[in-house]
Amino acid sequence: MTNDTHRPLTLRDVSEATGVSEMTVSRVLRNRGDVSDKTREKVLAAAKELGYVPNKIAGALASSRVNLVGVIIPSLSNMVFPEVLTGINRVLENTDLQPVVGVTDYQPEKEEKVLYEMLSWRPSGVIIAGLEHSDACRAMLSAAGIPVVEIMDTDGKPVDAMVGISHRRAGREMAKAILKAGYEHIGFLGTKMPLDHRARKRFEGFTEALAKEGVEIEDRAFYSGGSALAKGREMTRDMLDRSPDLDFLYYSNDMIGAGGLLHLMDQKVDVPGEIGLAGFNGVELLDGLPRRLATMDACRQEIGRKAAEIIALRLDNPEAEIEKNVTLVPTIDYGDTLKRW
Question: Which residues form the HTH lacI-type domain (predicted)?
């Protein structure tokens, strides 16, 4: 079955897909009434495959939408996402729309649950981090009949619209800058990547660019948990104890990179002469460090602004021509830890 993206799915769509009455479908989805297990399983399976989400708005509002925009992000503790939210809010505060935030903790199952609950209140639009989602999430997003903007990443195909950067390109550009500065013995420190898809893509782009010049990463370390200064200190110390000949350390984010910088400063290591460092995100919180960490700006507020603009413009004029695939280009800040050529 194909769905008109301008029309949300209804009970009738599930009824037609299963061959049972709308009343029976309603009973199953509300978990009310006497329905056979076979019929219940059939209806629930069809609803999930179609991406149908029940409407929690009752009575006269049942066919309406509320002036809310669902914003689904993986973390509030990560410094990146509050800045994205700031960009979203600066656009929506000039409209009747209000953002409402859900957090997934990088867990696909939790993302499904958060998205399901948000869509059940019939928001006017959804902004959701990343391009990698479960089949159930993609079905719900496709069937919602509202503007959907996937943010942070453009290395992939969106359900509707996307705003972000190419993380593979970001990794490649940083690798080129490191090699051009004369560094050859490189270590990588970052998050565990099965669920952090954007960090994984940067790592892939980084290693691809190194390999093109005949260079391999000589040591690597991964961790799970918050992007903490203490973790960066610990990982940096352990890596250099294992691999003392490294002359550059590339971190998947600025917070662990800053921890590494503080460790090396404590040890009186010459940075960037003896060893260079770089992170990712351009976190302003670190501007007060004794030395500025080399990094790459991830365009966070601009991503939030442009995503909110797409939602607002499409709701204001559904027929308007709007750019739906927006790739921003981050720039390298060499700071004090990456030699310039």
Answer: 9-63
